Amino acid sequence: MKDKHPKPTTLSTEELQLIEQLREHPELMERFKTILEITTSKVGPVKRADEVEGLLIEEMRRLGNTSMGSWAAQSERMLTEQLKAKDSSAHVRKKKTDVVVCLRFDQRGGAGLAHGPEEVRASVR
């Protein structure tokens, strides 16, 4: 019987582009490698179909999460570059997380400050 997908001796342009993109995103390459390992597993005990399905579903979730994180980081970089090109005086400002106010529930069930008003005033001055 003739093989429907003969193995080429050289990589196509499409394959080279895919390899280059995966090199630019090693975290995605790792996810794809894991998916391929699950589907072509020849080592260890034979797994049932539902076990393989569960492993693939979990890995696809990880792939989706990794992809979204990569997309978000790239989008943020592109937007920053566009903003800087549009207005050279623009600068990136990070959210300040140093100041935190802790809330707690007091005995009456209402929300209150973790410190009494005197302690808060003293630390603000």
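^ that was protein a. below is b, sequence first then the tokens
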Amino acid sequence: MTKHHYVYSSYEEWGREYIGIRSCNCLPEEDTRYFGSFCDRSFKPTGKTILFVCETRIEASEIEIELHNFFDVAVNPQFANRSKATSTGFDRTGVPQTKEWKEEKSQNYTGEKNPNYGNRWSWAEERKKLWGGEKNPCYGKPSRNQGHKWNLTEEQKENMKKAALARLLVECPVCGKLCKGPGALANHLKTHKQ
């Protein structure tokens, strides 16, 4: 059975519109019961106009994005759309969020309505679940440095100090003085500017 993809505009008589896309198994003209996936409860559509019939869902989605951008449906009061479609989801930029809307959202997720209600989460417990015990890739293996003593001669220690200093020393491009690190060089260069 082939899918039919179309872009539509559902509308209220003498009122607002809603632009969306739909994929269905029936012909678009026969899809008379579907008016959109709008969330605005005050929008009561009475009819629907099929704007474009497309070969693929992607093509229909591109047309919907263009129409949403052209009419700026997210903020345009003539449309019931609360967001503009994008290629990766929906964009609510520019949609005013009133105090009432924020309060309603807050009430929808407080107490037992919150999906995480009763869950006590801590990073330490999560880490223990993921990497504790036998799940840890180092479980049962001895530490690389456990019980290891570094027996270095005085000459080796001196060579390590010289190598570390050589990595840190930076030469001033103006006078040739050696400075310990880039920070010291920056301070030294300030003296040349004065």
